[in-house]
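ingest -> validate -> predict -> emit
validate: passed (alphabet ok, no gaps, 693 aa)
predict: started
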Amino acid sequence: MGDGASNVFSGNARNVVQAQHIYGGVHLHQPEVPVPRQLPQRVTHFTDREASLTALDSWLAEPSDSAAPTWLIVGSGGVGKTSLAAFWAHRVRDSFPDGDLYVDLRGYHVNRRRDADEALDEVLRALGVPSERLPVDAAAKATMYRTMLHGRRMLIVLDNAAAAEQIRPLLPGSPDCRVLVTSRSHLTSLTTREGAGRMSLDVLPPDRAVELLRRTAGADRVDAEPDATAELAHYCGYLPLALRIAAERLVAGAQLRIADLVAELADERERLDALAIDEDEFTTVRAVFSWSYRSLAPEAARLFRLLGLAEGADIGLDAAAALANISRPKSRRLLESLTGAHLLDEHQPQRYRFHDLVGLYAAECAQYDESAEERDAAVRRLLSWYLHATIGASWKAEPSFTRLPMQLPDSPGSVPEFTDRPTALHFYDAERANLLAAVRQAADRGEHVFAWQLPVAMFAFMLARRPVAYWLESHRIGLASAAALGDELAEAWLLTSDSIPRSTLQQHQVALAELQRAVPLWQRSGPEWAQAWALRDLGGAYYALGRDEEANEALERSLSMHVELGDEWGEATTLSALAKAEHRLHQYDEAIRHLQRTIEIRRSHGDRRLEGSCLSEIGLVLGATGRTGEAVEHLELALQLHRDVEYSYGEALDRERLADIWDTTGRPVQAREQRGLAAQLYDELGVPHELAG
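emit:
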């Protein structure tokens, strides 16, 4: 099992200290921030937005100290807000030498909407912050974001926002940056409180709608049937999105008369309007989507509607193949046909997403054109793929972990091969939002086994990346599903795992309560190694609360169980926890002895991350005994290991401990430098801490 207990012994961890560029007069080296270029593809045909483009140009030309830093483009779905924003942003991107950021907030999708916390994760990664260094707290993320953008000239495009709370944490606060927001809402509070500018985008005038069809479908065809073209534009609601889809249909059918398409669309519109509840932009374009959908080959149409059942932010090639129960090559061909019909966007290589209106229509098609049995089977295949892929990746990320036995469904097709730990971690980084969405979807559909198994499968990545908000939410859902099933084993696992982020957030009393619930559940239904794991973390919780006698009792029981079982991994983690307790009680010889056995085990397993942690603990004990030279040697070795494996939490502890030694040996400048670097790392992680000195 993993090192769950280790993070509750962080010594000075108490309060959040914000990172600064200067600590105690010591100027810190700031790593070079990459120049992201994230704008979506610009449209090639652009019609009737000259006045809007002029207004945006005027906004950019205003001096930074007097211009509104944020501008809103508002209008109905499909009216071309994103196209306008992307077109203008591409045109002026040279004015922003430090880069451009793009975030689709998906504000109008019921299940895929992104909050500011998730969006901040994305932009911070784009700015060069490794996933394992992302802060836990949303406020800390926003602070880091503003700090990184200070003094830089960047363009930030926030697409499909629904509410001001999605946007405010993403406002950089730097007058040299500009933020362009698209939304179907007026977002009045942003104009009144933040002074944002705003323009409204309407549908095209009839003549400009015809012009768009003429430019995209061909002048000869449109000029040959002017009345039919005008009627076609009318049926498209003069919405640019619908007009482009209609033009694509004409391009694909070179011999097709526009009048025939109008007749087909009129009939389809009548049928679909009977299904509409409200008159909105979806009602307007539903018939156009249907028209394009029904022109697809049967296999492509089936994949289209099944994709509407997936509730993640996007979907990868292999996951789409599993969803539809088709081969990987066929999945690729069908996805290419959907992107070619403008029904799907390949926003990253082999990763696909819908425009929100198209996604809603795809889900509607699944409800009407697939049986309930097939819908359920498709979702189960997708959940199963996520489960198998996550388990496969976790074995490569942490091969030494002891794992909870699970009854797994059959593998639904092509699951990736993970060649090394970085590949496995990259899988999790790419799929993290989708995995959380899968947990939610499983619980909502009553697939409670998936709802608890997926969080358990993600445990190795939770430890490596420390996404505390994801960790807590997935476990909250998993615990409810375990309780619904009456599965004590699943409940015991999730309670024990959930205590780790609770401890990271200094919620030690909550962690203790969860572990006190978990231990008897393990004793009734679980394997001994799991009981030992829970006792080990229970000892850590007692220790964090200052209840040393109870901590030692729990840790000694855990150690004897691990040794009896031959579980070296658990033995090493418990010995490390005992050594920390012995250090505090000034039992230095016992602590050194336990740590020497721990490092022997870590090296035999090839675990460089925890080898570094053990070296750091030895350095801490040596420093307490006055052997400062040896202590520094161990801490610097630990620091190098932690930097090599990008374990930021360990690096911060190493630097903090080095600072303590420099203080005691009369080297205050070096001490301030190390404390500053440690504070910066803690702040990037969002881990509560207090730095002495």
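The domain at 298-370 is CATH 1.10.10.10 (Arc Repressor Mutant, subunit A).
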